[in-house]
User: Which sequence fits this backbone?
């Protein structure tokens, strides 16, 4: 049976994983899809906040009951414990103030700011130049273009490799792409200049399709 310390450590590991998920959502998703995933993460964190609160309250209630119980009335320990548990639970603070939720909200805010910044940068780039590619993942102008040899779409090498390395299966992130084949590193080749003829290219002016899951 796991002791309280082991349960707490495991819970913290799970919460840390959820923080990483929140950062990835902010990097790779946007719009309604991003908002939906953030809500799921908040729901998970809320559960962990409740778990920790219940554990803390139970421990406090048990200590109070033990301090008030003598050998002569040991039979009342359970009743005293339940009374203290009810009292402490009623005074439990809002989960929104829990450190787990506060930290997650910070990461969500950063993700939303990043998404807004990416959109602003994309709009600015469209007005400044029409001869550069926009990366469909980050929505920023491509600095190191690679082409998918299967469907012909172009991505920034750093962002597509990061996506490949963080997901089990990645299909072409260009909206409307007909290819359902998983993207892998060995099918990525250096892309020709954006102003040169290129079948299924992803020029800057067609960058608002976003990432398809």
Assistant:
């Amino acid at each position: 049976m796991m002791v309280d310390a082991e349960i707490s450590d495991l819970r913290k590991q799970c919460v840390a994983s959820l923080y990483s998920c929140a950062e990835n959502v902010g990097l790779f998703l946007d719009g309604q899809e991003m908002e939906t995933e953030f809500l799921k993460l908040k729901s998970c964190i809320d559960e962990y906040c409740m778990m920790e609160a219940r554990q803390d309250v139970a421990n406090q209630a048990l200590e109070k009951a033990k301090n008030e119980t003598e050998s002569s009335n040991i039979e009342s320990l359970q009743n005293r414990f339940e009374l203290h548990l009810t009292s402490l639970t009623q005074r439990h603070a809002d989960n929104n103030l829990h450190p787990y939720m506060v930290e997650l909200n910070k990461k969500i805010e950063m993700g939303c700011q990043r998404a807004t910044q990416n959109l602003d940068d994309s709009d600015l780039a469209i007005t400044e130049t029409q001869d550069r590619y926009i990366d469909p993942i980050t929505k920023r102008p491509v600095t190191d273009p690679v082409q998918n040899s299967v469907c012909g779409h172009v991505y920034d090498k750093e962002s597509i490799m990061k996506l490949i390395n963080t997901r089990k299966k990645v299909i072409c992130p260009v909206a409307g792409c007909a290819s359902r084949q998983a993207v892998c590193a060995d099918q990525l080749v250096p892309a020709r200049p954006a102003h040169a003829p290129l079948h299924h290219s992803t020029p800057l002016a067609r960058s608002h399709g976003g990432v398809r899951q």
User: Anything to note?
Assistant: DSSP finds five helices and three strands in the chain.
